Amino acid sequence: MKIIKNLSEFLSENVKIATTIGNFDGLHIGHRKLIEKLKLEAKICDLKTAVVTFFPHPQKFFKKKIELINTYDQKIEIFRDLGIDYYIEIPFNEKISELKPIDFLNKILVDQLDVKMIVVGSNYKFGFKQKGDIKLLEKFAIGNNIKTFFLESITDEKDIVISSSRCRQLLYCGNVEKVHKFLGRPFSVKGVVVTGDEKGREYGFPTANIETSSEILPGKGVYTTEITIDQKIYKAITYVGTRPTVDNDDGLRKIETYIFDFSEYIYDKILEIRFLKFIRAERKFSSLDKLIAQMKLDSSLVKTIINNEE
Prior knowledge:
Blueprint: E1 2-4, H1 7-11, E2 17-21, H2 29-44, E3 48-55, H3 58-61, H4 72-81, E4 86-91, H5 94-97, H6 101-110, E5 115-121, H7 134-143, E6 147-151, H8 164-172, H9 176-183, E7 187-194, H10 199-202, E8 208-212, E9 221-229, E10 232-241, H11 244-247, E11 254-259, E12 270-281, H12 288-309
Parallel strand pairs: 1-4, 2-3, 2-5, 3-4, 5-6
Antiparallel strand pairs: 7-8, 7-12, 8-11, 9-10, 9-12, 10-11
Helix pairs in contact: 8-9
């Protein structure tokens, strides 16, 4: 996959593309449906596939609060794994934000990208204040000999649309199992193992303390997880929270993971944590002894879950 960050670079590629357009945070199964359709139709028409997206995320540009599901590197990695040919990143700035819908179509998609096919959702909006819709896009496409495909959103068993914002809300609630279903893969964070206060070791649970650049974390609590270190996978129990029993709840969320049957030195190594199942919410215990007793129960429960799944 070739990454294009300057539209003028693309002109020298001299290729014809089929594209889908959006922010694609989380790359959930609705996004993947678009990608599958894009790849299928592009192959039929002998076109290269391209994702057109924006950086920074428009909500960040407008200083609206949003915690992105994927880091930049994760998003690139997923698109590469999906087999996309071009990742075209449009710098989102004031000039772009003020483009009228028809100007976005003409100046970006036609003049600079020479798009031959567009695959988007039926609720797709674009241009200044998102005033452009698929009716305008379809009319424009017909006049410019561009093939278009408009896909309906994917919904769950309750007919609720699966979206990036919904995945975020589920993560805040700790519902990592449903997020797994909606993303088509477990929610994960990558981070570096840093030195902690080693209290876990004192309690009989030597944990790896993780420092991550991920913007969003699951809700505070204990989870069954899977850890990748040096391309090897390990089972683990992971805590996300503020450690109210030992830290008096300083408000700073921490990630601590206890890897089963593991004793290697991993400080400064990068690992990936995949969140598989919510075990319990964070709580403050009246004593360290009660906290340690609960940690033993949590560990035993997670081991049982793992053994039952193997």
